[in-house]
């Protein structure tokens, strides 16, 4: 009898764990944050959705980036996703876009969220 109760309790506990895991909320997406100055300083602009023209929100004035999203973002030199582009990986922080290997400071005019989490053919900001 005690063994039957223990087995029933174990099955019940396992079922509750399975239900909890199934109903756990997905990790919330954070914003892509663009900063006017290097070192994550100055005015900042946050994006949670694709934007083809950020001229009113920091366009051509961005010097550092923090991607707080669980997805990758692609930043473009010109509006409507044209010109040079770079992919910002989930969780990635870029201290100074003016660095020699990128030369992308004060050059971002549009941003695209990659809901599939990939960079596709876009180059990534990688340190040498």
UniProtKB/TrEMBL annotation:
<keyword id="KW-0677">Repeat</keyword>
<dbReference type="Pfam" id="PF00030">
    <property type="entry name" value="Crystall"/>
</dbReference>
<feature type="domain" description="Beta/gamma crystallin 'Greek key'">
    <location>
        <begin position="71"/>
        <end position="115"/>
    </location>
</feature>
<dbReference type="InterPro" id="IPR011024">
    <property type="entry name" value="G_crystallin-like"/>
</dbReference>
<feature type="signal peptide">
    <location>
        <begin position="1"/>
        <end position="28"/>
    </location>
</feature>
<keyword id="KW-0732">Signal</keyword>
<comment type="similarity">
    <text>Belongs to the beta/gamma-crystallin family.</text>
</comment>
<protein>
    <submittedName>
        <fullName>Beta/Gamma crystallin</fullName>
    </submittedName>
</protein>
<dbReference type="InterPro" id="IPR001064">
    <property type="entry name" value="Beta/gamma_crystallin"/>
</dbReference>
């Amino acid at each position: 009898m005690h063994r039957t109760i223990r087995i029933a309790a174990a099955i019940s506990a396992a079922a509750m764990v399975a239900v909890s895991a199934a109903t756990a909320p997905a990790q919330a997406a954070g914003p892509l944050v663009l900063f006017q100055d290097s070192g994550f300083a100055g005015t900042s602009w946050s994006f949670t959705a694709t934007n083809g023209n950020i001229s009113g929100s920091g366009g051509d004035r961005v010097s550092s980036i923090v991607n707080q999203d669980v997805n990758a973002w692609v930043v473009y030199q010109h509006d409507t996703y044209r010109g040079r582009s770079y992919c910002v990986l989930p969780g990635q922080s870029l201290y100074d876009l003016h660095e020699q290997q990128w030369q992308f400071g004060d050059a971002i005019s549009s941003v695209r969220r990659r809901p599939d989490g990939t960079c596709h053919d876009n180059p990534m900001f990688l340190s040498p």
